[in-house]
């Protein structure tokens, strides 16, 4: 059994397309989708952090799993080239899943 041929894909940026920097990503999950909220985190003081959210993206479970695979592949390649990415232990995921 052969796989169907891949279609030619043309990438076109919509007029509303924007690029932003995010150092904060929050996630909510339910049975239908994954909701990613991107923002910028700013340390206001030793005890105060402010996160300014600027974009929310809904993904189907299938797209979330495809994104996971792409991230695993690309993070692995990055670490192979530049070394292990260390995470701050205070930034471990916590909190309820919505």
Average pLDDT confidence is: 91
Helix content: 10-25%
Spatial separation of the terminal alpha carbons = 41 Å
Q: How does the helix and strand content classify structurally?
A: alpha+beta
Number of alpha- plus pi-helical segments: 1
Task: Give the helices and strands as they follow along the chain.
Answer: EEEH
Strand % is 25-35%
Taking all Cα atoms into account, the compactness measure Rg is: 17 Å
Q: Strands of the biggest beta sheet: in what spatial order?
A: 1-2-3
Globally, the shape reads extended
Q: pLDDT below 50 for ≥5 consecutive residues: which ranges? A: none
- Biggest sheet details: 3 strands, antiparallel
Number of strands: 3
Write up this protein.
The protein has 98 residues and is of the alpha+beta class. The protein has a domain at 24-82. It is built from 1 helix and 3 strands, in the order βββα. The protein has a 3-stranded antiparallel beta sheet. Strand 2 and strand 3 form a beta hairpin. The radius of gyration is 17 Å and the shape is extended.
List keywords for this structure.
single chain; 98 residues; alpha+beta; three-stranded antiparallel beta sheet; 3 strands
Brief digest:
22% of the residues lie in helices and 28% in strands.
Question: What are the SSEs and their pairings?
Answer:
Layout lengths: L23 E6 L4 E10 L5 E11 L1 H22 L16
Antiparallel strand pairs: 1-2, 2-3
């Amino acid at each position: 059994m052969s796989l169907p041929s891949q279609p030619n894909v043309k990438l076109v940026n919509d007029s509303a397309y924007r690029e932003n920097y995010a150092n904060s990503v929050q996630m909510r999950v339910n049975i239908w989708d994954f909701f990613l909220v991107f923002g910028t985190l700013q340390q206001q003081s030793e005890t105060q952090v402010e996160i300014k959210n600027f974009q929310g993206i809904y993904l189907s479970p299938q797209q979330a799993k495809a994104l996971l695979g792409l991230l695993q592949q690309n993070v692995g390649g990055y670490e192979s080239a530049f070394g292990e990415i260390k995470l701050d232990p205070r930034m471990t995921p916590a909190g309820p899943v919505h």
